[in-house]
Each structure stands twice: as C-alpha cells, then as structure tokens.
Design goal:
Layout lengths: L6 H21 L8 E4 L14 H9 L9 H12 L10 E4 L7
Parallel strand pairs: 1-2
Amino acid sequence: MIGQGFNPYSASKGAVRALSKAAATTFGRQGVRVNAIFPGIVETPMTQALSTSKDLLGRLIQATPLQRLGQAIDIAQAALFLASDDSSYITGSELVVDGGYSAQ
C-alpha cells in the first residue's frame, strides 16, 4: 500500500518488521519467540466503509489470488499457530496473511 497518503502506514509496517526481528534476536536466548503477522484487508468494522463502494470492493477481491477478503478468524488462526508449540522453532519471522495479494 505504498502511495500518496500511505507513507506513515508504510513506515509503521517497516518499524514493526525491524522491531520484531530485533526483539527475536535479543530475547531468543531466554526462550522468547517474537514473530510478526502482516494481515491484508480484513472485513472488520474499520474496513466496513469499503462495502459502500462496490467497485472498490470488487477490485480488491479481484486483485487477491484467493478471491475474497480476509476474516478475523484467518488472522486469529495465524496467531494461534505462532503461539503454539507447532511453531516452537519459528522466531524473527513475518507471517503475511493476505490471501496472496503481496505475492504478486
């Protein structure tokens, strides 16, 4: 989402990326795992305004390889995985949960 008006948003994403990697290397020896989740557009009250513009909503869905917007449960399941023992050897990672949008 780089473009006019998105510079602060993009900068904050970069800060989260750097901070999570720094924390992972700092606290890893103490058994603390630090990872970052980067969600795509998720249907929430905050993004509800998108539904008023069917054209914009349609273009967003069309541009997403999985052909849908994310749901809160998609992000929750990613967080549960990272918090579980199934990810015990994962730290300093970025988990992008965006339906494949950023893979293009």
